[in-house]
Every structure is written in C-alpha cells, then in structure tokens.
Amino acid sequence: MRVEHMVKFLVKGFLNLVGFFAPIFQMLVYRCLPKKRVKISELNEWDAQKYRFILVYVGFATAIDDFAKDFLRDFKSRGAYVVFVTNNPAFKQSGDASAWMDVFIDNGNQGWDFAQYKTATAYLVKRLGAKVPSKIVYANDSIFYIKRDKSAFVDRLLNESFDFVGAFEISGIARYSPWHVSGWLYSVSRELFLSDQFQNFWLRYLPIKNKRHAIRKGEHKLTQAALSFSGKYDVIYSNAYLIESLKRSVENRGQLEASELISSSFHDLWEQKFWRGMEGDGVIPFVTENLYRFSPLHVFLMLLLIDEGFPFIKKDLFWLNSVTYDKLVELDKVLRVISSDDVARKIKAFFLRKGRITEADLKTRFLVHVGLR
C-alpha cells in the first residue's frame, strides 16, 4: 500500500508540475509567433435607437445549435446587439446568420472563451468607444440553455444599479482558487467597461489555448479587476441564495430526500459522514462548510431545475463526474417534465457521446489535467 500511495503521489506531483509549466511555455510561444489575423463581418449596423445592450457570445461548435438559438432569440428580443465570436475554424454561417448575430468574428483558433471575449472587447472599443450602451453581457456556449422563462434572470443581468453581475460565485481555496465569479455568463456596466481596470485586464491577458490559464488568468483576474473598480456587484445565484434554496427543500422534503437533489459526489461525501454520526447537524452546515470544494452549478443543478425554474445545464456536468449514470436517468426524467422529450433526448445523447473523464484514455486525461483540452 505504501508503494501504491507513493506512486500516486509522484504521478500527481508530475502532472501538477506539467500543468503549472504548460501555460508558461505556451505564453512564451505565443509571444514569439506571428499573430493570427482576425476576420470581422458586420452583418447589421449598430443603431443606438434600436439596440438596448450588447451581447458578446462565444461559440465553440461548428454551427449554432437549437439551444444557442433559443438563448440568442431571448436576448435579441430584449434588444441585444449580438457580437458572435468563434475560435472554431470549421464554423459555418447559415443563410439566416443575421437573424442570430449582428457581428461575426472569426478569431483564428485562438484560446478558450476569454480569448474570444478579449477580441470582442477590442472590437467594441475600436468600433464604439465611449458610445457603448449602458450594459455589455458576455456569454459562451458551454451551457445548454433550456427554453424556460429567463426574464427575471435577464433583468438581473441588465440591472443598471450594478457594474458587475455574475451568474454564480465560486468560493474556492484562497491559495489555489480564490473567490471569483464564473465566466460563462456575466455583465458589466459602461463605466466598468471603459475603466482602466477593465481595459488593462484585457491588454494583459494572453489568449493561449489552456483552460487552467483561462480560469486563473481569466476568471480570477477579471473578478479582481472588476472589484478594484469602485462600483457595485451582484451575483444572481449566490452561495447564500443556494443555501436558502436547500433549506427550503429540507423543510419541504426532509433532510435525506432533499440531499438527493445535490450532486452525487457531494451527496455521497455527506452521506458517509451522516451515517457515521459525524454530521449530526445535517446536510445544510455540511454543504455550507464544504461548498468551496465543488462548482455550485454542479452541486445544486437538480435542486435549481426542480425548485427554482433554472434554465441552464453545464455541458461538462457528466464529463466531470458530477452526475452518475443513475442520476443521468433522473435528470432525463426531470427534463421531460420541465422541457420536452426532444430536449431531454438531445442532452442525454450529448452526455453519453462525450462520456466521463474517468473513462477516457490516458492521453485525454493527461491533456485535460494540464489544461490543453
């Protein structure tokens, strides 16, 4: 056993070392190579009288799927001018592209979501400057957008009382993953957008294709830049909101049944301690104290879908083992009730086709661990 533990320790140490140096090497290479040319197509002219806000939307797939179209349709109905950015060289615009986007940017296969945000931000600064509208929303297609009423959610994003609005907050571990706002959907005010803090952040951000870099130098640093601006911020599904939702569920269902609505990995960890008598106070204090270990969107998904009318599902939910096969069956049943059989079938098929990281080959797991996939 000691030898086995030692081998695991050494392997983990090696992977962490590679993961640490990989983005550094990529940054050096990026600085040395000639920069790729960005292609921009303006499909619809900006009109301050017609459009209420700007939506920067990042697409990674080869086309805009039905989920993304529903999301873009909802936002355009609220007055969004859509700047669509892709890093996928195989992306093909459909004949009705101008119905879903107003500006198309081909970013030349650079980086992940924050690389696309950077390019779109530079375009907006050059194109509109101080004439940008009062709100700019940033979003990417790492989420399935379920066709449910999003009006309250969008209202919070567009609330002009706040300079920075995020969907979720991640408490994290300070030395590794400090408190930050998730980067898949957030909004900024005109004042924050034009501020030195915000613009300097984008100038310093290097658009390399490494997910660790996108989180640490993207999400973490963006949050720091936004908070250093003397404005107000809001988190729609804050940890406090999620804990209150769990409390209501415990009151209505009882502790054990309510605990079944949190993610499998979190539930199993709590249940082991509960049955051993180590968590006499129950699931709520346990979740409160241990939420920093997990993504809140993964932990509370089923609870949010069933009780809070939540309209989003993370595409890496099954891949990252936050949902087991039996929970996937339950999710499928819930989606057939709150949405449709077709939506449930498409999401389940996507999860099963992508698989789980624990079942992937060694090469894939290595690339994921160091941020290259």
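(the above was protein one; protein two follows)
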Amino acid sequence: MTNLSVQRTSPRAENTVVGKVSALRQSQDPSFFRLRRGTSLLDAMLEPAFHQIKEELKANQSPVKDELLALAVLLLARLDEKPSNTRLARALASSTSPYSAQRFSTLIRCEEPEELFTHLQRAVRYCDNRVCPFDLARIVFGWRESQLPYTRKRLISEFYGLTQEAAA
C-alpha cells in the first residue's frame, strides 16, 4: 500500500486571496473591474493589485505560482457579490440542470493554466457565478503537480456525489 502525503497550499493563501479580492470589490477599486473583465492570465499579472496580493502571500510564507495566483484572482473577481457556500463540483452536478459529463471530463483533464482558466471560467459561469470562493481558490491552488491527483479525485468524487472516504 502506497502512502501518499499531500502537501496542500496553506489555507492562509486561500483566505488571503479571497479576502483581498473581496476587499477590492468592496472598495470599488478600478483594478477589480479590470480583473473581472480579464481574459488571460497576463491581464491579471499586469494589475498592481496582483502584485500586492503576491507580496502579501510571500510575507505570510504562503507563496503561490504566478500563473495559479493570476487564475485565482481572475476567477474570484467574476464571482457574484453574494457567493454561495456550494462547492463548484456539487453545483455543477445539481439535479436541476447538471453540467455535461464530457465538459466536466475536459475540465478535469486540463494541464495548462490558460486552458484551466477557460474551462473553470465556463464552469463558474454555468453556476451563475455563485460558488464558494474558498473552494474555488482551493481548486486553483491544488492544480499543481504535487496536488493535482488529489484535487482531481476530490472534484470527481464531489461531482458524482461520492464522499471523500467512499472514493478512497
């Protein structure tokens, strides 16, 4: 039996990014609106707010790859002002109008950050931009080599309605 230890991104990183994007929204900062309209990871990286968040993460000893941070910031800026507590995969699998299994499979198979941005953006929009921001940040920060198998497994389990223990 193989022992897989999973090194997660610090919850502080998720909390910091969600909090900072929320603060940008509350302050009506013009960079928030540019992030909300951003269409590529480069758009996020060109914003001073991105670099402020990046520096705060470094100061908290919770560094995140630039591409994943840009992806998280762009997606979080798109969320509704009053997001839901529903996790993304569960929202996609809602019984009223479930996300297609093929689209979900395409999302799960994403490798590159730009590709992931395209598919996560579509999935979030499908949920009317109302998903748990902390779950969304956890998904994005989990899309790195050391955590990718765990993140994919968790999303698949949630999408198909299994508990984490049942999927193990």
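Reviewer note on protein two: The chain has one domain: 11-167.
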